[in-house]
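Supplementary Text 2. Reproducibility record for the structural model of the 88-residue chain.

All settings were left at their defaults, and a single model was retained for analysis rather than an ensemble. We include the record here because the model underlies the residue-level annotations in Supplementary Table 4.
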Amino acid sequence: MEIMHDPERKIFIAAKDGKKMGELTYTLQNNVVNFNHTFVDPAARGLGVARQLVDAGAAFAADAGYKAKASCSYADKVLKSSYPQLLV
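Retained model, structure tokens:
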């Protein structure tokens, strides 16, 4: 699984063998990243794709010195359990 980040489009994309498996979108305002949407292709559900996307997003936020929040319920759950130090 490869996770790619397109900062211009504010999206993380998970792909395997050239096929898009999922995505995580975000907004960025006042040094706060808001992870607002996670989608995983039905054929890839249960494989940890969403978790890998949120982990990549959290690493991006931490590396950039940003704080984070999530209006996406899945991303919110992961941030609260694994990345509380990033939360606004």
